[in-house]
Design goal:
Elements (H helix, E strand, L loop, with lengths): L2 H7 L13 H5 L11 H8 L14 H9 L8 H8 L1 H10 L7 E4 L2 H11 L3 E4 L10 E4 L2 H4 L3 H6 L3 E5 L5 E9 L5 E3 L3 E6 L2 E7 L6 H17 L4 E9 L7 E7 L9 H4 L4 H9 L13 E8 L10 H7 L4 E4 L9 E9 L5 H17 L1 H14 L2
Antiparallel strand pairs: 1-4, 2-3, 2-4, 5-6, 5-7, 5-9, 7-8, 8-11, 9-10, 11-13, 12-13
Helix pairs in contact: 4-5, 5-6, 13-14, 14-15
Length: 383
């Protein structure tokens, strides 16, 4: 999704693709196939590029340091990226910046996990510090007896991260971008809706959020970006906690264009994809104004419909104002394969905008006939 922005700005984009069937290969003409965990492959790929950046956080930090030492312009740098790669490193940094964290501890075994749970109260959340995403690598530990069931995780990776289970009103995301020279801009804080650990919807800007909480969240994200020397786009995922000191707690960091920022493609003056390119190339950043009173982004995951394009006539006719973004991925249940953006004309109509965006997503996910039948049933049951 950075490809159109790169083309518009006149940049040549290259992508190191994991295989010949990944989406980037069809979007970017120069997409050599290689393993990002192999240093020799990375060195070969980086030859002649102006800047090397990322669409995920899993490239080994030791490899990135070697690239830096050889003169490659790596943005964000490995010291910053470590805070998105390792949740223990991130938690320590948020504490150091005196920003609001849940209670947390580094736990090396079941006994340490039990001690943490007994001290702060059950249930607790246990996370793998590295490699988890979309709810993977996260488990709820309800009691001391349940803690013993986590032994397999300690066998696979130690230490782990234990956190207090946060009581929150909703999840938020603060998206910012920063250049190597330190220019930074924030988009409005958004409301994110998760289903089974996966981002399902985003409402931009977050509605009915106290002005001081929204301002504090934006300021916290900008401070994290500056203090950790982040470059490019960064998403700070937050728990809204009314009545607490800041009104929110930091959940996780992502140092790349992020699912909670997909709404910016059609709902902001500058999309997160263009902004990321501007930022890592140290160009002036674009405006982040919202293009309407409310914008809804609705993800669609793989479902019964294996032929997305067969549903396009109905989906696009159903809502001409909707913008559909397909990722070019093979369809399988539960896999993110696209999203729908829709700009509303009034914040008071947010429920209607969500319904309309969801309707388009359902047609694409389930196929025309299934979605129409489901809609008919809902209509008949609604008084």
């Amino acid at each position: 999704m950075m490809a159109p922005a790169a083309t518009a700005l006149g940049f040549e984009l290259r992508v190191l693709a994991e295989g010949p069937d990944v989406s980037a290969v069809s979007a970017v003409s120069k997409s050599p196939i290689g393993d990002y965990k192999d240093l020799a492959t990375l060195k070969s790929f980086a030859e002649g590029v102006d800047v090397l950046t990322f669409d995920h956080e899993h490239v080994p930090g030791s490899h990135l340091r070697e690239l830096l030492a050889s003169g490659v312009n790596v943005q964000p740098g490995p010291d910053a990226l470590a805070h998105a790669q390792d949740k223990l490193v991130m938690r320590a940094a948020i504490d150091r910046l005196d920003l609001p964290n849940p209670e947390w501890a580094e736990v090396k075994d079941v006994a340490a996990l039990v001690e943490f749970g007994e001290r702060i109260g059950w249930p607790v959340v246990l996370k793998m510090p590295r490699g988890g995403y979309d709810g993977k690598g996260v488990r709820i530990v309800a009691t001391a007896a349940d803690a013993a069931l986590a032994q397999d995780w300690f066998n696979a990776m130690s230490p782990l991260l234990a956190e207090a289970k946060v009581e929150f009103s909703r999840e938020l995301s603060a998206l910012v971008a920063r250049t190597p020279d330190g220019e930074a801009r924030a988009w409005p804080v958004v409301h994110t809706i998760q289903v089974d650990g996966v981002c399902d919807e985003v409402i931009a800007p977050a509605l009915h959020i106290p002005i001081e909480v929204a301002a504090a969240a934006e300021e916290a994200a900008l401070r994290i970006a500056h203090e950790l020397d982040v470059t490019g786009v960064m998403a700070v995922e937050l728990f809204e906690t009314p009545g607490s000191g800041f009104g929110f707690l930091v959940n996780e960091l992502a140092m790349r264009p992020h699912n909670t920022g997909h709404w910016t493609q059609d709902g902001s003056v500058t999309s997160q994809f263009e902004q990321h390119l501007r930022a890592v190339l140290n160009l002036p950043l674009g405006a982040t104004d919202v293009l309407g009173p409310v914008v809804v982004m609705k993800n669609f995951l793989g479902g019964d419909n294996q032929d997305l394009f067969s549903a396009f006539p109905t989906a696009l006719a159903q809502e001409p104002a909707a913008k559909v973004h397909c990722y070019g991925k093979s369809v399988r249940p539960g896999r993110k394969i696209g999203h729908v953006n829709l700009v509303g004309q009034s914040a008071d109509d947010v429920d209607d905008v969500r319904r309309r965006a969801g309707r388009v997503a359902a047609i694409l996910r389930d196929g025309t006939n299934a979605a129409m039948q489901q809609h008919s049933q809902i209509t008949e049951e609604t008084p």
